[in-house]
Amino acid sequence: MNVTAPNLKSLPYTREAVLTLFAPLAQRPWAMLLHSGFAEHPHNRFDILVAEPRTTLTTCGASTEIQQGETRSHSPEDPFVLLQQQLDALNLHPPLNGELPFQGER
């Protein structure tokens, strides 16, 4: 799949919706749910579901393991530099969307 922008889906809100949507993904590798937790806040409507990443970076002490498919390597470089290198290699430059949180800075 060629992904060059976030995959955004607007869904009708129910308190249980995100848990129901996450259930089929929960057993997949690296499955995670960042849930707004039903907070009484104007920005509580955002949940993030992820699973099966293309690349993982796992840092322990001064060494970071980089795994892409079956290929593994290790690096002593700063893990945030390594992460930026991975993002740059994908050449992802989605436009900023003022309606969305968690977009980082450019």
Automatic annotation (TrEMBL):
InterPro entries: ADC_synthase (IPR005801), Anth_synth_I_N (IPR006805)
Source domain of life: Bacteria
Start and end residues of each Anthranilate synthase component I N-terminal domain: 17-104
Pfam families: Anth_synt_I_N
Gene Ontology molecular-function annotations: 4-amino-4-deoxychorismate synthase activity
Gene3D superfamilies: Anthranilate synthase
EC number: 2.6.1.85
SUPFAM superfamilies on file: ADC synthase
Nucleotide-binding is among the record's keywords: no
Protein name: Para-aminobenzoate synthase component 1
Organism whose genome encodes this protein: Serratia fonticola
